[in-house]
Structure formats: C-alpha cells, structure tokens
Amino acid sequence: MADVLLEAPVGISGRHVHLSAEHFAQLFGPEAQLTKVKDLRQPGEFAAKESVTVVGPKGVLENVRIVGPIRKYTQVEISRSDSFKLGLNPPVRYSGDLEGSPGCVLVGPVGAVILDKGVIIALRHIHMHTNDAMRYGLKDKSLVSIYTNGERGLIFQNVLVRVSPNFRLEFHIDTDEANAALLQNNMYVQVLVPTNAAALSMAG
Amino acid sequence: MADVLLEAPVGISGRHVHLSAEHFAQLFGPEAQLTKVKDLRQPGEFAAKESVTVVGPKGVLENVRIVGPIRKYTQVEISRSDSFKLGLNPPVRYSGDLEGSPGCVLVGPVGAVILDKGVIIALRHIHMHTNDAMRYGLKDKSLVSIYTNGERGLIFQNVLVRVSPNFRLEFHIDTDEANAALLQNNMYVQVLVPTNAAALSMAG
User: Do A155 and B151 touch (CB under 8 A)?
Assistant: First the structure.
C-alpha cells in the first residue's frame, strides 16, 4: 500500500434536500423560515428541523431532512438504495452539477413542487481547507485514494478533493458507502500519497 | 495498481434466510416443501418462492426470500442498512459462523420462530472451483484484493477465497457493497495478484 499523506474524519451524508427560496416558500409557506437543529462540520451548513416527502415513479421517501442554508437551486441527494425504492436512475454527481439528472416530486406541509431535474447520488469527495491542501501538495479537483481498514476494508479510488478557505477537512460519503466499509461519523480514514501524476490530474 | 490475476463475475446477495428443516416446518407447516423459483450460480443453491417476515426490536423486513436447499441451521443474512432498520448489530461473518450473533423473530404463514442467534452480515468472499484455485496459485482461505473501476471504483481488501469442487467462480457481495461500487449482477471485477506473502495468509 502507498504511504499515508494525511488522516481525515468521515462525514456520512444521509439522504437530504437543498431548497431554493422559491421552492421552500411553495412547500412551507411564504412566511416560513428554516429552523436550525444542528450545525454540520462544513461552516455555515446545518441540518434543519423541516423535512419533505420525496416521491418517485415507484415509491416514496418520507421525512427527508432539509440541509440549510437556502440555496440558489433545489437538489435532492439520495443513495443508490433509495434510487431503487423511488424508481429513479440518478447520476453520481458533485453538488450543483444537475444537468441531465432526473426530477421528482417534493411534498411539504403547505404545497408540492414538481422538479424536472435535481436528483443525484452524491459523488464522494474530501473537503479541505486551503492551508491543508497547500501543506499536502494537493489542489482543488485533485484525485486521491482513501484507505479504510477493518474486516470490510476498502480503498476508495479517484476521490475528488475540493479546496476552499471555507472548508474543513472531511471525507464525505453516503450511507451505502459507509455501510459497505462499516464506517461511522468521525472515524478517521487515511488519504494515500498519490502514486503517480495521473492521480493528481483534473477531474472530469 | 497490482497486476490482474483473473476476472470474476459479481453475484449480489440481497437479504435472505436459510432455514433448518425444523424451523421450516414450524413456519410453513409439517407437509410444506420449498418451491424452487430460480437456480443460483453456486450449484444446488436456489431462490425459493417462499418468504418470511424478519422482526427485530426496532423494525420489520417483509418478504425476505428463503434460499434453498434446507440447511442444518437457520441463518438470516441482512445488510448493514437492514440492521439499522431492525435495531440489531450483527457481526460480519462467513456463512455458518453464528456464535455470538444476535437472534430475531421469523414469522411465516403457519407459525413463528424465536431465534437466539443466526443474524449476520455476510462477509464478502469469492467462490472458486478447485481447478481455478490451483491454476492461479490460491488456496481455500487465501485473501485477495479485488478491483472495480468506474466513478465509484473501489479496491476491496482482504477478500476471503473459498475453494471447493462444488463451487463456481463468483465474487459474492451484499447490496450495500454493490451500491457503494455501482456494481450489478454478472459485471466482472478484477482479482489482483497478491503483492506479498501476507495477502496469502490464512483468514481468521
């Protein structure tokens, strides 16, 4: 195995929804406000008390948490397991890359929204503060391999590095990936030293 | 990456139950017989028409398929996702290794069974015919790494090799692992050449 470059804590994203101001008002009413329940590790992000029902052609996911703050676009992040239940075939995408993704119906306490796109499976990625990236010789959109040990030990290949002065170090995966590797929130994984130049090439 | 030793087809195990003759009779009646719906890839194994309800302290899984033939012991194989729904914390085990595993309640059309053990998360493994194992220098209980490509490409480490003249080549994973890697039945994965002696040591 390659050498370890750094260790990073795991953050597991359960299914969740980001809402635009327009959609939030349609679902919860024009006077409604998001209620913060818990700050997430990435600065400014929080789990809201409010939830919606996500409806697909074959099934329903109830009580899907909204993650705030309000965004410019509405985005539904589900696992592949969830996608089978809904009867959708969403692509694996980084946040905000919604072109060509399937839509769904969102239902809230006040109204419903019919989305023509916005359902994705989140592309695993590692958030990194600019200082960490410089220290370890990585850049925004670098690709790294990430090692986990244990009886379901895995090496996640081609993990996208996202760098910003607003980010805190965190390896973001979804519930399928966490369950496959028996990972839990705040466990640590090993980011491996890239073994060749290809591993540092730009994503996409 | 290490060189490729051989390629193997993927077999994804959904949640399922193996039943002893005694438990089958309690659940389906003394005269009942298992009805074969589909042969599985491993010789003699088949998906049955019959299913049971699996009940845990926090939840229920309905219509859980029975895999035949009848076995000497009852065993319930679920995913980690399922385990959260049931409220159980089963260990990751190879088939038949049930000591210390949690129990559950099985309910069938005629009766119910209270198990004091038998619920496991299946340990991923690769079935291999004796001739294949000889050809590739592997033994029963060798450990190998298995490579999958794509946008959710993984290397599964420490995959247990099981060798028998009754086995056909197949990499067995559960639904969490399949979803994490975007694998589907009969896709091919790459078994890597072991990079050192440790990779060939005995499991457990």
Answer: no
